[in-house]
Fold this protein.
Amino acid sequence: MKQIENERGIFTVDDCGTLRKFQYKPMPGWSTDGNSNVHGGQNITSLPIPEGVYVLPENAFRGYRIFHVILPSTLSYLGAGAFSRCDIERMTFPEHLRIEPSAFSASIIQQLTVPENADQLMLIQLAHALRFSFVWHSSDLSASLPDFCKDIFLGKWEPQEQWQCIENQSGQFFVDADGVLMDWNAPEGADDLPELVIPAGIKAINGSLFTELKLSGPLHLPDTLRIIGIGESINCFSCCTLPQVILPTSLELFGQFAFGGCHIGCLTIPPGFEKNYRHIGTRQFQSSTIDEIRVPPAYSAILQQVFACNQDILFGQKEDPVFGCLSCAFLPMGDRHNRLGDHMVELLSRFAHKQ
């Protein structure tokens, strides 16, 4: 744990940059002891969250009244309910951010400030979060959003007219103008697929398109993919059977429970993955069984540190046909207590912060 202090308070973050506690410095005349936990309600004039905070977890500032929230450029993830039931006059966003759909649940936000060069996928997530989480908002809030997001926010979005259909051996993939995979049709008559090849050019996957999918071969994710999970439902590959998964080096973020409840044979984190990946949350592989995890040899020590608590885990090296020699962690075959997935978030967060 470390503490980051600014003019508005002391922010305690863990080794992965997740905010764990906030102590507010009250303005003169304010009746508060400034000793609140992250989940306690407060009235705050302005809240500039300092650089070095990477994650605002679930319900981080639930129930606060804040005149101006300023999110730092280092922030990668805004958790479910992070600003739920809040009354916020103004909110300033960074260029890049992963936003859970319920981040602003039942909140009042009167004004948004978004950078001109803000990431398009972040803006789409922001529009979805505002559209599906608000009980009230100011009538001109949509003016803060670019034109292509306003219809999402106002509930007038009819994207089907703009979707492109890409067809391959794994079925029909419907992609919008921003490169988001919106829908998928499996090949006719195929119950179990030998493999799933998601086409190149897709930047993000929307919703729970592949839930309970059973593959007998590898899942191929394109090297253009940046986000797994966008929109209302973000458990894209939950409860799937996936013999082989290689995370692409382009991947930046993915949603809660994206691979939750899966059985994954071999999960490979390739060399170069850490360049783009940013810490995402807490439940991406929750309750998943993973037979083997492979990482670059440079991260062998991290792999062993993360899984040191489980004495049944074996460590070694494997020759990968694509990436060469990789370090690996695996459990004996048939281990009924296989919960390697529950440690994956910690492992990936170490990659995100190059630790």
Q: What stands out?
A: The chain is about 10% helix and 30% strand. The helical segments are 120-133, 147-154, 300-306, 344-352. The longest strand covers residues 289-295.
